[in-house]
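Many introductory courses stop at the sequence. We go one step further.
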Amino acid sequence: MTNKKEMLKEVLRNIRPSKEELVGMNNGVKEFVNKINKKIKQSKINASLFVGGSFAKNTLIKKNEYDVDVFIRFDKKHKNEDISKLTEKLLGDEKNVSLIHGSRDYFSVKAKPNFVIEIIPVLNVKTPDEAENITDLSYSHVKYIKKNVKKDVLDEILLAKAFCHANKCYGAESYIQGFSGYSLELLIYYYKSFMNFVKAMTKSGGGKIIIDIEKDYKNKHQIMIDLNSSKIQSPIILIDPTQKQRNATAALSKETFEKFRGACKKFLKNPSSKAFEIEKIDLEKIEKDAKIQKYEFILLEATTNKQEGDIAGSKLLKFYKHFSDEMSKFFEIKKSGFEYNGKKSAKYFLVVKNKGEILASGPSTKDTKNVKAFKKKHKNTLIKKGRIYAREKIKFGVKEFVKKWVLKYREQMSEMSIEGLESL
């Protein structure tokens, strides 16, 4: 137990941003907030700023690039206006500003090479019922965590975030479908420690985990009845303590949760600091092992014309799944991987084995005219459940398959917002 505690202390030291990084971000945010506050005073816009996200809640983990959320809370008198346009007006002559499309458009400002400020317009709501967008609740989320979560639990949250990040389960984005930062903060607050959380997740079995921190409901049955059906599909139903009709883990998919549970079981069996480090995929080793086993290896890069981030990532993941399904018609997929770079491209690797032959479907046996034509075209045929099939040899390798598939389905790729697919 002592060794485990020491190991987790060491992990904490490694995952905390340095004092220099925090001071740099704090100074950068202060400067930015002061500048925008002056512009708000000069304009006729009724708004105020607040710093949110992990930075404000002291739950920020060490990264290569940091982002700090700064929210512009617009008074309700601006309710019928486009507050994203008002935000753009306030940013005015700011440099390195990027517009990001979402359920409500927001902006990103590159403050330093490793530091981004995201400016998010929200309405200043008094109650959750007044919110028109999930971001309108951000102030209450920050307020709840800062009020309720003590310093020792903040450390446990850092461990949970680093663990989920390393195991690719961190983020509510569509291409991840994992735990949001806020949901992890609530879960660790509820379970009191990272280890308690991990143990609870492995013991969950096959049923849904239902958590109501503030006991807003009489029982779990009432939760299942009261919440919208779309909000109870996730493996964990975590009632947002600031809005009881909201499931804070609604974005979590069953697939991501099972991957997370597997990582938890592995960690409990053999606790190691490596569980908090992103495992680099050794493509050279994978390719070498594939050759030894007489399989084929291919590394591909797909590009999209969609906005980088959640939208691009989702399109690239959807195409990866579709293309893998197409390939599986001719090859057994032994191993594969998807790696999104956060921009407009993603890499896919696949280790495959040629199936040798496929069954090409023909007409119904009742269609004698076309059966005759099918038999003329194909030599090796068989009847199966009232339909004729032909056995066809697969005479091409995986690289040839990719080239031919891209040429044949360029229009379909375009419809899926995919600009290109190339072998690396």
